[in-house]
UniProtKB/TrEMBL annotation:
Protein name (database record): Respiratory nitrate reductase beta subunit
Coiled-coil regions, chain positions: none
Domain (4Fe-4S ferredoxin-type): residue spans on this chain: 7-35, 176-207, 209-238
Ranges of compositional bias, category Basic and acidic residues: 571-581
Main localization, broad class: other
Species name: Actinomycetospora cinnamomea
Length: 581
């Protein structure tokens, strides 16, 4: 048993309202720069729909993720080392700009600068790639206005994989369904993007499992884009480098949640630590039957409350407070204790670490329409098979097409709703409701508290990084080097400190990790705005558009430096007058 720690996330889809606050704040923090105008590290899709990029779930077309070869061993769907070597200068199996969308802005200046005329001036859309006039045809979540429409059902790879459910949707179009699916990088236990990179630029951090891109080693082959089945690795067309979601590691290192989680209006995201057996990952990902992959991954996770696991974790170098955080982790509770969270597309065999609680849909209203009590446990259980969101569709998303685990999750959610109604009305609780889904009344109430009432510290159980574990003589250097682990060190990215294509940053800006450990948490949790003492030496890279040369960003050329003052004869360099002989 080789114990390792992994940061993970669970999203409760019943709470997502599709407001895109997470998308906008992530965009503002990480990809508000030249070269990544089309990139959304966090996007919210409408289901059914084509997704972003279009039809990314169709792995017969895009060849992402893993498959099993004739000997039953894992192999990249896009091909192994020999194929990559032969096609290293051409990687055609990846989305084009039209599959993402051509980013645009509007010519607002024309509204105020246009000369007087007969017609009212308009702000035409302008391409952010070419700068020319364009027509808006597609965007990161264009499906939002067309949820469940025939234009989408024809192009949705998930519906194409479930013929019987597709028939049901077509026959019951007047009861069309939709729900929102937020997506970030899965930071998988078995990441196919890492295995696809010829230069070894993508790597998985051993301390927390976050997958990052080493910009120094990236050569822009873009095979990682092909290899990722979730299409959450992007190509910066200006820098020629790959970029991806960093799980906001500068925030996570100091115990703060990711930006998308912090700003989520519906409070649907949970972050925590999971302990897992690294020696069993390959075996679990190689399960012959796709229906077994969900349970296989769940068995890879280790119970942090087991004394043997805790002892082996500390022996493996995992700090004690990380083990304690794993014991309090909401991720462990939702995945293994209450068993209501499911992985996204386990059939890709990447062992994803962003899991989802499937939506229960307006089941109470559906039951009430029949004239019976909509929150009665018996009625709720009977209505699950007739949900507006087909069970088969959810199964194709979360359990490789197996409806049994999805049905079990929805039954637990329905039992919680029925059981808690009796509690809230002050009636005697019915333990048989909880027993019907394999739980106790106390467990149902604990699950309700976590899903509905949990405060900030219970939704985000994030242990801080341990810099003191390094060699004290090299600690400062290690902290500075950790700043360059960020996938956005170039072209004005938030991680652009320390070494880069233009040398050291001027003014001695504090490396990102040093600032985090000593200042970031206090600044973001304080009641009053903080005023860093070295503000005059800093450059706000988040507001830089990549053009021009902000003052203080690069060292001043020698020719532009002021001349050193000439020393008068008879004085020493310290200004003290020497006595004449």
């Amino acid at each position: 048993m080789r114990v390792m720690a992994q940061m993970g996330m669970v999203m409760n889809l019943d709470k997502c309202i599709g407001c895109h606050t997470c998308s906008v704040t992530c965009k503002q923090a990480w990809t508000n720069r030249s070269g990544v105008e089309y990139v959304w590290f966090n996007n919210v899709e409408t289901r059914p729909g084509q997704g972003y990029p279009r039809t990314y779930q169709d792995q017969e077309r895009w060849l992402g993720g893993w498959t099993l070869n004739r000997r039953g061993r894992l192999a990249l769907k896009a091909g192994g080392r020999l194929k990559k070597l032969l096609t290293i200068f051409a990687s055609p199996k990846q989305p084009q700009l039209e599959d993402y969308y051509e980013p645009w802005t509007y010519d607002y200046d024309n509204l105020v600068q246009a000369p007087p005329g007969e017609h009212v001036p308009v702000a035409r859309p302008k391409s952010l790639i070419s700068g020319e006039d364009t027509q808006v045809r597609w965007s990161a979540n264009w499906d939002d206005d067309l949820g469940g429409g025939p234009e989408l059902t024809r192009s949705d790879p998930v519906l194409a994989a479930m013929a019987r459910a597709n028939e049901q949707v077509r026959l019951e179009f007047e009861k069309t369904f939709m729900f929102y699916l937020p997506r970030i990088c899965e930071h998988c236990l078995n990441p196919s993007c890492v295995a696809s990179c010829p230069s070894g630029a993508l790597y998985k951090r051993s301390e927390d499992g976050i997958v990052l891109v080493d910009q120094d080693r990236c050569r822009g082959w873009r095979m990682c884009v092909t290899g990722c089945p979730y299409k959450k690795v992007y190509f910066n067309h200006r820098t020629g480098k790959a970029e991806k979601c960093t799980f906001c590691f500068p925030r996570v290192e100091v115990g703060l949640p990711t930006v998308c989680s912090e700003t989520c209006v519906g409070r649907l995201r949970y972050i925590g630590v999971m302990l897992y057996d690294a020696d069993r990952v390959a075996e679990a990902a190689s399960a012959p039957e796709e229906h077994d992959l969900y349970e296989a991954q769940r068995r890879v996770f280790l119970d942090p409350n087991d004394p043997v696991v805790a002892r082996e974790a500390e022996r493996a170098g995992i700090p004690r407070d990380w083990v304690q955080a794993a014991q309090r982790s909401p991720i462990w509770a939702l995945i293994n204790t209450y068993r209501v969270a499911l992985p996204l597309h386990p059939e890709y065999r990447t062992m994803p670490m962003v899991w989802y609680i499937p939506p229960l849909s307006p089941v109470v209203d559906v039951v009430r329409e029949t004239g019976v009590d909509g929150e009665d446990a018996g009625n709720l259980f009977g209505a699950i098979d007739a949900l507006r969101i087909p069970i088969g569709y959810l199964a194709e998303l979360f359990t490789a097409g197996d409806p049994a685990p999805v049905t079990a999750v929805l039954r637990r959610l329905a039992a919680m709703r029925s059981f808690m109604r009796e509690v809230n009305l002050g009636r005697p609780t019915d333990e048989s409701i909880a027993a019907a889904v394999g739980m106790t009344g106390d467990e149902v109430q604990d699950m309700y508290r976590l899903l509905a009432l949990a405060p900030y510290d219970e939704r985000y159980v994030i242990p801080t990084a341990h810099t003191e574990l390094g060699d004290p003589s090299t600690l400062a250097h290690a902290l500075e080097e950790s700043a360059t682990e960020c996938a956005l060190d170039y072209e004005g990215g938030p991680g652009m400190v320390g070494g880069g294509p233009f040398g050291e940053g001027s003014g001695g800006p504090a490396p990102i990790a040093v600032e985090n450990f000593h200042m970031l948490k206090d600044r973001q949790t304080a009641d009053a705005p903080a005023d860093p003492t070295d503000r005059v030496h800093r450059v706000n890279l988040l507001n830089w558009d990549g053009k021009g040369r902000p003052e203080g960003l690069f060292p001043t050329p020698p020719a532009e430096r002021p001349a050193a003052p000439q020393l008068m004869e008879g004085t020493d360099p310290h200004g003290d007058v020497e006595p004449r002989p």
